[in-house]
Amino acid sequence: MIQKSIRKVFNAVVKAENTFLIIAYIVILGVIIIEVVSRYVMRHAITGLEEIALITVAYAFYIGAACATRDERHIAAEVLHLFHIPPRGLRFIKRLTTGWSFVAFSIFSYYMLQYVIMVANMPAEYMPFHFPKVYYTAGVGVGFVLLVLHALQKFIEALRGQGFETEKLAEGPG
């Protein structure tokens, strides 16, 4: 029962991430097109468009990094098949790299928290809308929380021996 509830929440988070990224990239594309047309065709820049694009890019970057972790879209998954490692060795490597990633995320969390606190305490404002800098850096925190969520899930799956397609890696891509 609890696992089913957790799975539903996780699926809702994944759906929200994917939906946000689609919308974010449409917004980024639209804002940049409008900005270029207004600046170079109409010879008048629209106030605040660059700021909207920057905030959207910050969130999309960090949430996209969390999605890459979730989907295991990184170089290790693409290269391991070249070494013809047996499935048992691949599972060991997966557990080792997942554990190391968890340690790295823990270290990153400390510095991320320090950075967000530092920026939150800055009185400086950005650009025409006068948004506090914390709006930009909050994307780091949101992405980090999602990254830890997905990394923790992968770590638990690796410990259980689940979620790692050793046969697929042994065969190679395609």
Question: Short summary of the structure?
Answer:
By secondary structure, this protein is mainly alpha-helical. The chain has helices spanning 2-41, 49-70, 75-79, 87-120, 134-160, 166-171, and strands at 125-126, 131-132. It has six helices and two strands; from the N terminus they run H-H-H-H-E-E-H-H.
Describe this structure in words.
This protein is an all-alpha fold. It has one domain. Helices cover 77% and strands 2% of the residues. The protein contains six helices and two strands; from the N terminus they run ααααββαα. The chain has a two-stranded antiparallel ribbon with strand order 1-2.
Strand content: under 5%
Structural class: mainly alpha
Number of helices: 6
Q: What average pLDDT do the residues reach?
A: 75
Indicate the overall shape.
Answer: elongated
Main sheet summary: 2 strands, antiparallel
Main-sheet strand order equals: 1-2
- Helical content band: over 70%
The helix/strand order is HHHHEEHH
Q: How far apart, in Å, are the first and last alpha carbons?
A: 37 Å
- Tell me the total number of β-strands: 2
Radius of gyration: 20 Å
Number of self-contained structural domains: 1
**Unreliable parts:** 164-174
State the main characteristics.
174 residues; mainly alpha; two-stranded antiparallel sheet; 77% helix; 2% strand; elongated
Please render the helix and strand layout as text.
Blueprint: H1 2-41, H2 49-70, H3 75-79, H4 87-120, E1 125-126, E2 131-132, H5 134-160, H6 166-171
Antiparallel strand pairs: 1-2
